[in-house]
Design a protein that fits this description.
The chain is of the alpha+beta class. The chain contains 7 helices and 9 strands; from the N terminus they run E-H-H-E-H-E-E-E-H-H-H-E-H-E-E-E. It has one domain: Cyclic Phosphodiesterase, Chain: A. A 4-stranded antiparallel beta sheet has the order 2-1-8-9. Strands 4-5-6 form a 3-stranded antiparallel beta sheet. The radius of gyration is 17 Å and the shape is globular. The chain starts with 6 loop residues before the first strand and ends in a 5-residue tail after the last strand.
Amino acid sequence: MTAASDRYAIYWAPDAAHPLWAAGCRWLGRDPSLPMGMDGLEPPHPDIVATPARYGFHATLKAPIRLAAGTSFADLRQAAAALAGRHRVFDMPALGVAWLQDFLAVRPLAPLDAAHPLRRLADACVAELDAFRAPAPADEIARRAAQAADAASLARIERWGYAHVFDAWRFHMTLSDPFGDPNAEPARRLEHDARAWFSHSLAQPLRCTALCIFHEPAGSAPLRLVERLPLGGAA
């Protein structure tokens, strides 16, 4: 049974058989498709991955939401599966390890334009699944509003519950907690280690074949990968 405070997110994650999935889960020390403690994974830098490990290796398409009154997880799943079926499988952009503000992430090597199928998929998840989003608690809205970079960010938070959507969305798979100065020696060592760690997996052809539903149980427990919803076939 779903609690009122449970949250669900629509994420992208590499296919389970792709080496990037194994590399990302090992880097974070956790496979979100398995019960806690059942994966036997130990991260190489356990002191800097607490937050990304809780969320699991992923890129956000629709940020975590509580279910709106009158909706259920089954409703959300049905709508997300239908959305996935309307989008064709496509090649992912070339990815690499780079800083995003003060944290390390796997990111596209070149900017994505609005016509890219990955951007169109993310935009569709934000807009088409928003009917399932309950208003966030007042303290959460206030916290996000206080962090808004400008009036446009605040407007997106008020309309969509999240600032980083549409033109402000940046595909990224988080690899570290906030790290201070990315130019400091410890940060440069971490970046070097991450690039070496992911070099093989990022060199392999990578496709977007599914949307992933993640579930955050009440109480801010680690998110679990509930299901992969396949896209609508070969491009």
